[in-house]
Amino acid sequence: MYSNRSVLDLKNIALTLVGVKELLTSETGASPEARITRLIYPQVRDEISELPIDWQFLVTRSSELSPSSTTPNSGWDYMYLLPDNCLRVVAVVDEDGDEVQYEHDVEHWYDSTNKAVRPVILSDKSTVFVKYIRRLENPGEWPAWFCKMVYMRMAMLLCIPMSKDDQRYNQLARWYKDAYNDAKAANGKYKGRVDDDSVNLLEGNDSVVDASDVDVLDKKYIEQRS
Predict the structure, then answer these.
(1) Where are the beta strands (DSSP E) in 124-194?
(2) For residue 64, which of 123, 120, 129, 125 has the smallest C-alpha distance?
(3) 104 in a domain, yes or no?
(4) In the structure, what pLDDT confidence band is assigned to residue 207 with cuts at 50, 70 and 90?
(5) Does residue 50 fall inside a structural domain?
(6) Strands 116-123 and 105-111
(7) CA 201 to CA 211: how far, in whole Å?
(8) At what angle do helices 144-163 and 166-187 cross, to 10 degrees?
(9) Residues 181 and 203 in one domain
């Protein structure tokens, strides 16, 4: 999964799709292309990360959170500040595993000391572990299908102001939709849940096989394609 892809690479792919000839050579350039991609890129990255899809490579689990000294006034017993890299809470889970989950609310709390609004978890649990979608800034740690979604979405947003080409925009929109659907399908393959008979619970009727059994895998692939 790891690669040498950089933020600059994704920006330049997006610009190429829009039809820009002069590509970026650094993140700090003063050209119109450099300025607009600096503005758009972090928005697109977080927008796609925060979609209501549990991107498995972004899902992580916090260590035990410490309750805030502030008592919630909304009926919950405890309030917890979320980790700084948390984009979206998936669940409040048990110390021993993710199967048991607990009721909670996610709200935004005004921190009068630091004069900032902070996202918080409200819970009746005195011990809280959070499963969440994290912000992962290095695209070298993203799957290729996630990178494709990001640069396709960037190209869509750049297309009208930079090329004013409606036909190109419509094509990019179709390509982004395809990239999104491919990403959802790829993301669904990250988990391997099997029952006592080694039947893959995510696939329904496909047995989990040894990856070294090439003949079996090839046969299954041919049957699916035919």
Answers:
(1) 129-134
(2) 129
(3) yes
(4) very low
(5) yes
(6) antiparallel
(7) 18
(8) 170
(9) no
> Given a cut of 80, is residue 209 above it in pLDDT?
no
Look at 3 and 202; give whichever has higher pLDDT: 3
Q: What is the 3-state secondary structure (H, E, C) of 101-134?
A: EECCEEEEEEECCCCEEEEEEEECCCCEEEEEEE
Indicate the number of domains in the chain. 3
pLDDT for the residue 193:
53
Please name the amino acid found at residue 133: I
Token reading at 138: 């290095």
Q: Based on the fold, state whether residues 27 and 91 are members of the same structural domain.
A: no
pLDDT tens-digit map of 2-26: 678 999 999 999 999 999 999 999 9
Q: Is residue 79 part of a domain?
A: yes
Judge if 129 and 91 occupy the same domain.
yes
pLDDT for position 191: 63
Helix, strand, coil percent values for the chain (each to nearest 5): 40, 20, 40
Q: Residues 63, 130: one domain?
A: yes
1 located within any domain: no
